[in-house]
Amino acid sequence: MLTVETDTVAVEERLRLGRLACPGCAGVLAGWGRARARTVRGPDGGVRVVPRRSRCMGCRATHVLVRRADTATVIGAAIAARASGGGHRGIAERLGRPPGTVRGWLRRFGTRVEAVRVVFTRWCRALAPDPVLPGPAGSGWADAVAAVIAAAGAFMARFCVEVPVWQVVSAVSAGRLLSPGWPTPTDQG
Q1: Where in the chain are the domains?
Q2: What is the residue-averaged pLDDT of the chain?
Q3: By C-alpha distance, which of 94, 87, 49 is closest to 71?
Q4: What residues contact residue 177 under an 8 Å CB cut-off, 6+ apart?
Q5: Cα separation values, 58 from 20, 54, 65, 164, Å
Q6: Containing H/E element for 34?
Q7: Reported pTM
C-alpha cells in the first residue's frame, strides 16, 4: 500500500501524469482499477471511500493508493495530546482507537518533530506579513505543535477562512505527515 493525500482529484492527476513512484523500484505508477471499499474514521463517525489501485510500469507490482484509516483531525488530536504530556494508552482510550495504532502515529511523528517544526515555521513566515513565531514550548513535541498551530493561524488569517488546524497540516504535507519520506529536503528549505 502507498499512502497518498486525501484529495482524490490530485491523486488521479499525479497518477495520470506519472508523478507517483513505486515504493519497490521507484518506477512510474499507472492506474489499475479500484480496491475494496473502506471507512475513514473521523471524530464524528466515518466516511466510505474506494481507494485507487495502481500498477508499476517497471516491476509490474500493484499497489493500493490509500489514506490512513483515521482523519487528520483524529491523528492531530493524538499528537497534540502527546505534546501536552499524554501517553499512548490514555490518548487511545480518549480517542476510541487501538493503543497500537496511536503508538504507531506517535512513534512516527516522534522521528520527525524537528523537521515538522522547521517546515511549519517556514510556512508561518511565508504566510504572514509580520509573523508571530512561537517561542520554546518546553519540548521538541510541544515546539513542533506550536509551529503547526502558528502556521495554521497564519493560513487562516491570510485567506480569511476558518478551518481545522490539522486540515492545514494535511494540506501542507499533501496528506503525508506520517508517511515515509516526508518531509523531503525541499520541504525543509
Answers
A1: 2-66, 72-188
A2: 89
A3: 49
A4: 72, 75, 109, 116, 169, 170
A5: 12, 12, 17, 40
A6: strand 29-34
A7: 0.76
